[in-house]
Amino acid sequence: MAAITAKMVQDLREKTGAGMMDCKKALTAADGDMELAIENLRKSGAAKAEKKSGRSTNQGKVLTAVENGKASIIEVLCETDFAAKTDKFVDMVNKFAADMLAMPGNGDISAEVQESEKTALTDTIGVIGENMQIRRAAKWEGGEKYVSYHHDGGRVSVLVEVAGEDDAVVLNDICLHIAAFRPRYITENDVPAEVIAKEKEIAAAADPKLKDKPAAMLDKILAGKIRKFYSEVCLMDQPWVRDDKSSLGKLRPKCKITRFVRWEVGEEL
Question: What CATH number does the domain located at 59-181+256-264 have?
Answer without folding.
Answer: 3.30.479.20
